[in-house]
Amino acid sequence: MAQAKLTKRMLDALTAPETGQTFVWDTEIKGFGVRIGAAGTKTFVIQYMNAEGRIRRVKLGRFGVLTVDQARDLAKIKLGAVASGEDPAEEARRARNEMNVSELCEWYLTEARAGRILGRRNRPIKESSLAMDESRIRTHINPLIGKRIARHLTIADVEAMQDDVAKGKTGKPRSGGRGGKATGGRGVAARCLTTIQAILGHAKHKGLLAEHPTKGAKKLAGNKRTRRLSVAEIETLGKAMVYAEQQGVSPTGIAVIRLLLLTGYRREEGQAMQREWVNPMGGFVAFPDTKTGEQVRAIGPEAIKVIVAQPQIAGNPYVFAATTGDGPFTAVSACLQRVCGFAGITGVTPHVLRHTFASIAAELGFSELTIRAMLGHASQNVTQDYIHVDEALKLAVRRTSDEIAKLLAQGAAKLDRLRLVA
């Protein structure tokens, strides 16, 4: 524990520790010091023992925002209050308890992005998930209940918020170049409730709230997505993909569509797949990260053919490379809509392709447990020890993929016959 008289010159010369944090305590005012973090941030603090005999530490402000003299004067005031029996740390805690919902949400986003709030399996929350949380906060939660004091929220408050989102009261054009319009609806409303409930739960866990004020609020039942492509629709899609490519639709986008249907992979798993993850001989793809963490997933020969057929672009690691830059192809959803337009099929999203793969697997007689493993689902009933690429799982994936490839080929053949007849 270093001690020295704190001066601007001395603080400017301090270097950051490789890990953790270090403190330098002022030799003139006992309990006044500066904390240096691994990122180089220097923060003035005071440390003292309260009336209960507990060591407390309170931040005064960052060096640069506060001068050394300003921080020293503030330390004298705070430590003088301690001598009078006050507890600045407890006052700060009470002030946090008066945070409104908007401030609490901002705290959550900051702490989660710093890795100090953990999500599923006690892992840091993914940036993609935080981006969705932030969108719900900015678009729906803050406009409706952002000014309410967090600890005074009631179940009725958050359920009313959910009802307002479901009715579209927060609908508005999106900002930030995303296009479209945020319209709300039951699904979005339910996810907004889940988000605010989780934030309040994290705040209680971290000591910002004594109790979870809205525990027990009921989430709207969503409309479960059961859409899948019928056998006839798969054949029609096969015909439409051939026709779409003839009409100048992106062959890369069409290839991603084919891969998603042949594997049941999630949209991002397919279109952002990197070549180094794919093991054609082993019949698997080693994803370093998915919605449910790192996974090794089986892949059938028909899908591997799609991957191998993609042109390699120097400096671009992705299987499905963007036409410009070094990123992945990202327009599969728009491409799917064009292809389905040619086919006269409606209501199809990348998730429908995933559900179709699962449905075909079920029709072939594979169990729910096996299908969940094929899709990479996390489940309390399917342990990580079970979800590995064994020969039985490879066989299930291959049979399902082959069946779908056969249906697509049958549809494409019908287009060929029509063209020959013409």
UniProtKB/TrEMBL annotation:
Keywords in alphabetical order: DNA integration, DNA recombination, DNA-binding
Cited Gene3D superfamilies: 1.10.150.130, Integrase, DNA-binding domain (3.30.160.390), Intergrase catalytic core (1.10.443.10)
Any single biological process term in GO: DNA recombination
Amino acid composition bias (Gly residues), ranges on this chain: 174-185
Any one GO molecular function term: DNA binding
Domain Tyr recombinase, first and last residues per copy: 224-399
Keyword DNA-binding: yes
PROSITE patterns in the record: TYR_RECOMBINASE
Region feature Disordered, mapped onto this chain: 165-185
Cited InterPro entries: DNA_brk_join_enz, Integrase-like_cat_sf, Integrase_catalytic, Integrase_DNA-bd_sf, Integrase_DNA_bind_dom, Integrase_recombinase_N, Phage_Integrase
Record bears the keyword S-adenosyl-L-methionine: no
Membership in a protein family: Belongs to the 'phage' integrase family.
Name of the protein in question: Tyr recombinase domain-containing protein
Annotated source species: Sphingobium lactosutens DS20
